[in-house]
Design brief:
The protein has a single domain (about 5-120), classed as 3-Layer(aba) Sandwich (Rossmann fold). It is built from five helices and five strands, in the order E-H-E-H-E-H-E-H-E-H. It starts with a strand and ends in a 5-residue tail after the last helix. The radius of gyration is 13 Å and the shape is globular. By secondary structure, the protein is of the alpha/beta class.
């Protein structure tokens, strides 16, 4: 079964980078650019993992993470915060909102791939 990743990000360059990286590795990736779009997409996609920017239009990433963790179908879905915020406070705030891991931008694609594989395994070829 193909492993599905939902990427919530409003920067088109970051979206292209992540989609290209994970699709090349065999994952199915869908992206949304607003926090308030997550609810509709997550019901259809049923992602195995969420990559989540914290600074989003519509609904910030902290609210999205809390919502995902409060809903039965998504409460166990791992969330990796991928954000420009780079401080201990921001990391703690993201983890307290329900994120399982935290990475500051610029994105270290090698480390991010390792994180994803730790949570959901390698994509099947």
């Amino acid at each position: 079964m193909v492993k599905k990743i939902l990427y919530v990000e409003d920067n088109p360059m970051n979206i292209e980078l992540i989609e290209d990286l994970f699709r090349a590795k065999g994952y199915h990736v869908e992206s949304v650019g607003r926090g308030d779009e997550v609810m509709d997409v997550v019901k259809k996609l049923k992602p195995d993992l969420v990559l989540l920017d914290m600074q989003l239009p519509g609904m910030d990433g902290y609210m999205v993470a809390r919502w995902l963790k409060s809903e039965e179908p998504t409460k166990d879905v791992p969330i990796i915060a991928v954000t420009a915020y780079d401080s201990l406070y921001s990391r703690e705030k993201a983890l307290n909102a329900g994120c399982n891991e935290y990475m500051s931008k610029p994105i270290d694609t090698h480390r991010l791939l390792e994180m994803v594989e730790e949570f959901i395994g390698k994509a099947e070829s």
